[in-house]
Description:
By secondary structure, the chain is mostly beta strands. The protein has three helices and 28 strands.
Amino acid sequence: xxxxxxxxxxxxxxxxxxxxxxxxxxxxxxxxxxxxxxxxxxxxxxxxxxxxxxxxxxxxxxxxxxxxxxxxxxxxxxxxxxxxxxxxxxxxxxxxxxxxxxxxxxxxxxxxxxxxxxxxxxxxxxxxxxxxxxxxxxxxxxxxxxxxxxxxxxxxxxxxxxxxxxxxxxxxxxxxxxxxxxxxxxxxxxxxxxxxxxxxxxxxxxxxxxxxxxxxxxxxxxxxxxxxxxxxxxxxxxxxxxxxxxxxxxxxxxxxxxxxxxxxxxxxxxxxxxxxxxxxxxxxxxxxxxxxxxxxxxxxxxxxxxxxxxxxxxxxxxxxxxxxxxxxxxxxxxxxxxxxxxxxxxxxxxxxxxxxxxxxxxxxxxxxxxxxxxxxxxxxxxxxxxxxxxxxxxxxxxxxxxxxxxxxxxxxxxxxxxxxxxxxxxxxxxxxxxxxxxxxxxxxxx
Length: 446
């Protein structure tokens, strides 16, 4: 099936919790208005859709099984939508949100299909919004499906086939029949004034360029799931001649109804079950997301390799230490050791040599092998035949404890093994204690 050519995807390497639920955000160019569309003056009024207006649809791609309960803004995390020029809306639109629009409106008012709105899954009262490339039932919107607007354009409106918008609306309109019955209705808060009129960019007034709220929300209390197995959920449609930006905050439910919150950015300390997800901010802010570099920052939504300048070199940076490494630029806490403070043991064992090539593959037969290791690390203990009490710990390059095990009493001259298959790639320290006497070895996890 032909795929839409103009779909922007952006992502980031997250902590496991974030990555497991929000897979990506998709901004699809849904349609580009042409001169014929601009003839529709909306029931005789001067107000019309400007030629060149672009309609974008925003999807949240979740891991299967997860649901969006709420799109919101609060004191700590604003909900934002902006454009460099005003957003478009029909001034005679009877309803405000995507899940309230009726399909039969499109025939008599074609450009209503391009209005600016928020939603949770639904693009009409009876249809889910899906990417045009995933629409399998043709079109009920473009071309001959409508009467051609106020100018009665022969062949109808919304038939521009500009390749920058991908698949024409006359072929696939991104609408699939909804098969889900929601036990509770959709609800909204913070969009309407005291006269119950939405005067924001989502209402009748189409002159606005910005919506920022710290109290608005759109909610379906039981949560909304995508109509297709990959679980992409439509959350907004925006039409403008300008450049768009947005920041979303989401409440998600899993199969057990556990609530987890994701925010686009925050200057506040995040609470329990609240995670920062930079891909919820658009356009994505790119920077160095490669943890091997000093410039690494987890708040970037995408990687810009040109922003990564200085490789991290872990080791002992104290020139007075017996394992001083002049190439190191990050001190490993508790890693430096000094003559006279090494328990009178062989310095070559207590302070293993960290050569300038220590991050390259090792070819020696040290007591920790294989090195680099992929799955199981083996350690030769000691040559004595006496039984000894043994335990080991593994620390990452930030001196964080990642593995610990008490092995009890082990026979002398033994080889022990540690499963490291689930550890991320990088440099590690293996600290083994034999009857209270410790030694440290380094290893690299592939």
